[in-house]
Amino acid sequence: MAQFLFEADLHGLLKLDTPIPNAPPARWQRKAKESGPGPSPVGVSPMKPANRSHSFSKTPSKTPGKSGSKIQNTPTKAGGDRYIPNRSTMQMEMANFLLTKENDPAEESPTKKEQQKAWAVNLNGFDVEEAKILRLSGKPQNAPEGYQNNLKVLYSQKMTPGSSRKNSRYIPSMPDRILDAPEIRNDYYLNLIDWSSQNFLAVALDNSVYLWNHASGEIIQLLQMEHPDVYISSVSWIKEGNYLAVGTSSAEVQLWDIQQQKRLRNMTSHCARVGTLSWNSYILSSGARTGHIHHHDVRVAEHHVATLTGHTQEVCGLKWSLDGRYLASGGNDNLVNVWPCTQGGGGDFAPVQTFTQHQGAVKAVAWCPWQMNVLATGGGTSDRHIRIWNVCSGACLSAVDAHSQVCSILWSTNYKEFISGHGFAQNQLVLWKYPTMTKVAELQGHTARILNLTMSPDGTTVASVAADETLRLWRCFEMDPIKKKEKEKANSAKSSIIHQSIR
Fold first, then answer.
1. Which of 305, 313, 321, 338 could cross-link 333 (Cys pair, CB 3.0–4.6 Å)?
2. Are 181 and 442 in contact (CB under 8 A)?
3. pLDDT greater at residue 446 or residue 150
4. Among 371, 375, 431, 434, CA closest to 402
């Protein structure tokens, strides 16, 4: 009997379709029991779907695929991990080796280290000691042909345009005023305008000279030549602004009193037209078409006191330095001569410097107001260069190609800059930074070549006259109000010291 019971138990254990007594419930039974009160899922088979209502009127409360518990599924596609782009290119074994090697306190001999280094180079292609953890193997991809990185501009520039513009002042691109200049002679070699210290602008229009008061706008006709074929070839104010020197095509040099509006004297020593004039105290220097420069002492009857013969063609540029030590002359023979100051007496006078680098006529000559030995010159159409000279050493400090005829040069008294007037093709005025010789601004408006430039007594406004028969005023050197007050205080302090010394 006991044998039959044992066989029945054994047969029951070996049968797979009967429930196992005292066995733990299946996983699907536990989940059904935890889901809430309801009928006992005893008769439900795990391999068959449960009886569910197929009503479509109720929308699911949660978005499918977004359950309360966050479950991270392993991506089935290789390289689909969004945190590590491609595990196949990461040397995980090498990273594991480097991490475990840091905790290894064992010291190795130099010979063994060299052997391991050689093995690592042969096996891996690089030194293990210099390798980085999670080092990305493989060479980086080359950029496609023609690709340009736009960010390179931001990091390659020394100074952005915005920051450089902050340091620069505002320069009006349009003229402050435009005046008519009818019948002005379109001759490169003449000097037809000049601005006095009393704020009168003298303009030579054919055979007449007109004065324009900048403060009041009043226009005065100072003179008109008696003979219709004689024209005015040059004008120049004395430093005090009460006398005007006038050169004519009939080789005369006239001296006019502005207050009385009458001619004081007529000086004749040249035999050709006088195209340029320059004052040095009571000495008036005149340059003629013959290439000769005459010094006139306006105080005495025998006014002709010296003759300078350094040019073979017409003298078209003449300017005394501010300290009165040197006279610079430019001519149609492409020469620039620097003459010493002559205090009376006759004899032969030789220039202290002669510059021959210009390849065209030199009309534009100007002395630097804060460096008395620095001279700026500009060449004509065949040269088109502006050159800066040291008259003491004779060295050319700098030269720049202006790409057009240089008609006139003026130095600013308010800034370390100068302005140049040009001819074809732009007929523009150009502001230059000194000593870097970089362009600050270009002022355009004239439709024909510029003939002359002159500056207002306060140094803020430049007047330009051109062959288009217009005279334009440019406020290109306007001072900052704070700097202007400081300059006025400094000038008043100097004048008070002078008055005290006189008393």
1. 313
2. no
3. 446
4. 431
Q: Give pLDDT, residue 500.
A: 42
Least Cα distance to 424 among 443, 402, 455, 441 occurs for 402
Question: Which tens digit of pLDDT belongs to each residue from 175-191?
Answer: 999 999 999 999 999 99
DSSP strand pairing (429-433 vs 353-355): unpaired
Burial 63-94 (b: 16+ CB within 10 A, else e): eeeeeeeeeeeeeeeeeeeeeeeeeeeebeeb
Reference 430, options 457, 458, 460, 453; nearest CA is 453
241: DSSP letter? S
Helix/strand/coil for 25: coil
Q: For residue range 361-397, list pLDDT tens digits in order.
A: 999 999 999 999 999 999 999 999 999 999 999 999 9
Report CA dihedral (177, 178, 179, 182) to the nearest 10 degrees: 170
Cis? peptide before 272, omega within 30° of 0 = no
**What's the rounded Cα separation, in Å, for the pair 147 and 149?**
7
Cα torsion at 196, 172, 423, 215 (round to 10°)?
A: -20
User: Could you tell me if 333 and 292 are in contact, meaning their C-beta atoms sit under 8 angstroms apart?
Assistant: no
The predicted-structure confidence for 69-94, as pLDDT tens digits, reads as follows: 444 455 554 444 455 556 666 667 77
Which residue has better confidence, 483 or 338? 338
What secondary structure does DSSP assign to 152-215, as a single string?
HHHHH-SS-HHHHHHHSPP--SS-SEEEE-TT----TT-B-EEE-TTSEEEEEETTEEEEEETT
190, 71, 132, 130: which is closest to 451 by C-alpha? 190
Report the share of the chain in percent with pLDDT over 90: 59
Distance separating alpha carbons of residues 458 and 475, to the nearest angstrom: 11
What pLDDT, in 10s, does the model give residues 151-178? 555 555 444 444 444 457 899 999 999 9
Taking alpha carbons only, the member of 412, 405, 414 closest to residue 384 is 405
